[in-house]
Prior knowledge:
Layout: E1 5-10, H1 15-25, E2 30-36, E3 51-52, H2 58-62, E4 66-69, H3 73-82, H4 84-87, E5 91-94, H5 101-110, E6 115-118, H6 124-140, E7 145-152, H7 162-174, H8 179-182, E8 183-185, E9 199-205, E10 211-218, E11 223-230, H9 234-247, E12 253-255, H10 257-261
Parallel strand pairs: 1-2, 1-4, 2-3, 4-5, 5-6, 6-12, 7-9, 8-9
Antiparallel strand pairs: 7-10, 10-11
Helix pairs in contact: 1-9, 3-5, 6-7
Bound molecules: nicotinamide-adenine-dinucleotide.
Nicotinamide-adenine-dinucleotide binds next to helix 1 and helix 3.
Amino acid sequence: MPERLRLVVSGATGRMGATLARLAAADEALTIVGGVDRDGSENGASGYPDIRSISDAEELIRSADAVVDFSAPEFLRSLLSEQSDALTGRAVVAGTTGLGAEEERLLDRAAERSPVLTAANFSVGVNVLMALVERAARALGPEYDVEIVEAHHRRKEDAPSGTALALGAAIASGREADLAAVRRDGRSGRPGARPTGEIGFHAVRGGSVVGEHEVMFIGDLDRVEIVHRASDRALFASGALRAARWLAGRPAGRYDMRQVLGLD
Ligand code: NAD
């Protein structure tokens, strides 16, 4: 039997950290060697033999083949900057959303020495949705108005979701447009008539909704809707573990789920 992939989870005591531990326990190809989280996070969270703070995680990280991060932008930032040497050569799978320019710069820097994979959404179904909306946008053209409606649980802090923005980027790319130039978040007051080519984003928040994304292509004569509904967050953890297995041992560089799933 091949050796098990040794994993460290960053954000181990969070919801995704718990789900990753549950799935990894049932996966013969993986072993969780420990977790990293904030000081004061509950020690010995279920499924984690060891939980360390970032400053105390060097040895743990060096014992792993891959680090999977679902934490917060500031935590990922500290992990990448304080443990850059220990991370060298290890696969880095980053799922934290709401990343800014500084986190992207640190991920680029890590990718000079490690294979690094980021995804706004690790669900295999959503990544298929991404590929479909790009093709639909290319075929339908900018005369179809695009509106993206996403819904998430009430605790989600960023909006629109990273996935909604990635869907918008895929649509813009299908139309050879620049998302920043055509993006419109919500509408209120008197925004005026809708310009051709605009991509609208709308965020619904409430309850315990795991994650829903609806992309509408609204034409004069018809309307195409493509929808994905996640029913269990294990979906994201399962995709992230699939990505970690695929990524470990690859050359340094930035990767995405399209490559993992062969969607290019
Ligand atoms: P959570 O709040 O349950 O867990 C966050 C974990 O990060 C906790 O263990 C917390 O202690 C730790 N942490 C460290 N520094 C923190 C800080 N400054 N603020 C908040 N938490 C901090 O969240 P979660 O639902 O597990 O999600 C974690 C991240 O993963 C979020 O960014 C979320 O949007 C993202 N996420 C991504 C995907 C995807 O497919 N890419 C799927 C689900 C969640």
